[in-house]
Amino acid sequence: MHPFMQPVSEIYSLLDQPKNIVITFHQKPDADAMGSGLGLYHFLIQFGHTVTVISPTNWAGFLSWMPGCKKVLDYEMQTARATAVLDTADWLFCLDFNTMDRTRKMAEKLTGLTCTKILIDHHQQPQEEQFKYGISDVKKSSTSEMVYDFIINSGNGNKITKELAECLYAGVMTDTGSFRFTSTSAAVHRMVADLKDKGLEHSQIHENLFDNFLEGRFRFFGQVLLNRMEIFYDYNTALIAIPQADLIKYNVKTGDTEGLVNFPLSIHGIKLAAIIIDRGDERKSSFRSKGGFDVNTFARKYFNGGGHFNAAGGKNSETLDVVVKKFKDAIKENKEQLSSYKF
Ligand code: 5GP
Ligand code: MN
């Protein structure tokens, strides 16, 4: 199935030999990246491994409650320390990303490492030649579900502690849109039932993730929904284009824009929703679709990105105006598919 990667089941028998292990995930980690990373951390330390979690960049404040989060290294802020840890790693787990460039400044370092690299991910078209072992399954709801499968399939379900369950729950809950998306299989619900049996208190986690924002985030949402949103009814498409000045004025922090793209997607008739944010160093885009419009292909073709069929993102170096023009040209090119959508 994977011409390069051997199945992760090959490493089950090696788990009880203590090693130096590094776990990493994509830049600006979301709850699935951080949750799968820390879930795996709480699992591996029980075998006596020396385990370090390294994030390529900083992360949203609403993830800091996760057990173990305070020990996570930020590669950009702690480059020397993180580099020293990477240089002595026997195993490197790469979670929730498909290509090394999703780790930003860490990409070159990771690509150059000669240790055993293991991929656990649910994005399309992984860079398989980089990994000795791996599992890549786009049908999986989340990387957290895949880490859960890894633990169960290796015969170690008894090692799921309450802390571990909290991390994995945060990942699977957010990546399924609170168990809403079609990826929410019966297996996902069985996993959550098992986590509940292991002591999980799920209400607290929803509160930690969704009820911890500052006022400015909602003032910012008000501003961009009122003044920066354009609807293209002929294309069943909505776009929010955000200049850097708005981010500065409302003191927008990492993670504050997460979920924003779902507002235009909730408008009756909208099949494709996009946000393009001028982050200063790059123009970051997010795409969401309903039904048969493939935003992974769309993001790859026009915005140097990728992701999933109904959720993808990208980045451009051109100015915001140029990227917005690119978007408008791109929906014109896809008019046939976008305008034919039936409600
Ligand atoms: P978001 O819009 O929440 O940033 O990302 C949605 C999905 O698209 C995620 O699964 C994420 O991994 C993927 N994605 C976001 N930005 C990029 C990008 O620049 N490159 C690639 N390959 N995938 C991206
Ligand atoms: Mn994910």
Name some characteristics of this structure.
binds guanosine-5'-monophosphate; about 350 residues; Diaminopimelate Epimerase, Chain A, domain 1; binds manganese (II) ion; inorganic pyrophosphatase (n-terminal core); 13 helices; alpha/beta; globular
Nutshell version of this structure?
The chain has helices at 31-44, 79-87, 107-112, 143-153, 162-175, 186-197, 202-210, 215-227, 244-249, 262-265, 295-303, 320-333, 335-339; strands spanning 20-25, 50-55, 73-74, 91-95, 116-121, 133-136, 229-232, 237-242, 272-278, 283-289, 306-307, 311-316.
Number of helices: 13
Largest sheet: 6 strands, parallel
Broad CATH class of the largest domain: Alpha Beta
What fold name goes in the CATH topology slot of the largest domain?
A: inorganic pyrophosphatase (n-terminal core)
The appropriate CATH architecture of the largest domain is Alpha-Beta Complex
Order of adjacent strands in the largest pleated sheet: 3-2-1-4-5-6
Bound molecule kinds, no repeats: guanosine-5'-monophosphate, manganese (II) ion
The rounded distance between the terminal residues' Cα atoms is 38 Å
**β-strand amount:** 15-25%
Describe this structure in words.
With 343 residues, this protein is of the alpha/beta class. It folds into two domains: 6-210, inorganic pyrophosphatase (n-terminal core) (Alpha-Beta Complex); 216-338, Diaminopimelate Epimerase, Chain A, domain 1 (Roll), CATH 3.10.310. It is built from 13 helices and twelve strands. Helix 1 links the parallel strand 1 (20-25) and strand 2. The model has no long low-confidence stretch (mean pLDDT 96). It binds guanosine-5'-monophosphate and manganese (II) ion. Residues 32, 96, 122, 142-143, 175 line the site of manganese (II) ion. Manganese (II) ion binds at residues 32, 96, 122, 142-143, 175.
